[in-house]
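Batch manifest, entry 17 of 40.
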Amino acid sequence: MKDIDFLQQYAEAVKDSSNRTRQILLVMIIASILVFAAFWNSRSNGWISSRRTLTVAAVDMLETKRRVASARLELDDIVDAKALCVKLKRATDPVSQYVAEHLSEETRTALNKTPRSRRPRSS
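Output type: structure tokens
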């Protein structure tokens, strides 16, 4: 009986030792995966850097479109000046209202001096 108890103590010691080894190995594997992921993401061509580069490119493209959309009109850009004057006088849509509100005083005076568009007479 003493031999069985003696062997059972060794078996339990081996079991406890293998459990500790398994836990330590699991912690080491998880730590090495985390270290590798941190290294991989910190590279210059990692996914974080590429996402940042794409985001900066998208913001630049949107900013360029915004700047182009808000560019000032030149006199040569206006094809039908008379229609533009009539539209600014009436200011029925939000864009023409905004433009009419932000005209300089000289432009407003000149706009008020232009003749109104003629309506066809009804017979």
